[in-house]
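As a warm-up, study this chain.
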Amino acid sequence: MTLRAILLALMGLLMITGCPSAADDDDTSDDDDAADDDDAADDDDAVDDDDAMDDDDSASACANEDNLEDNDDASQAIAVNSGDSYDDLWVCPGDYDYFSFTAPAEGEFTVAIAFIHDEGDIDLHLEADDGSNIANAASFNDTESITQFLSAGTTVYVQVEAEFRDDNVPGNSYDITFEHQ
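Now compare it with the structure written out below.
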């Protein structure tokens, strides 16, 4: 996992779970005082026990997992070929979807997603095999696409990222296609 992916995941976790203020002692660390301590026991977790998620739940709180999970980082990426497409996938903030593509020959690689922007923004990122960023697609439209020239044998990773919604309903569904010419 790249440092960038780890930082993005941590940022997403903080945005979802919230970050308690110093004045709010909801026991994000083990302490022995009982004053204003909402935690039932000193249990070494960093998540309040009075939240809606069990300690075993995913950090993303993604209620709509698709059949390709767990493809949450480059090491779990779904390998795709030119002409592949997937419909009705779901992505949530902090719970990225990754796909990998290895160019069989020199040519242009295109990845495109379609979704309903009013139901939540989704962005695309293209990363090199070493995790460095190659290209991004982020607009306010119902589609995003990236086209990149690839040499034969080059492997790239596509990251699909959901932005947080104003209505606190995480994620959005999308369709994705992959082409190489």
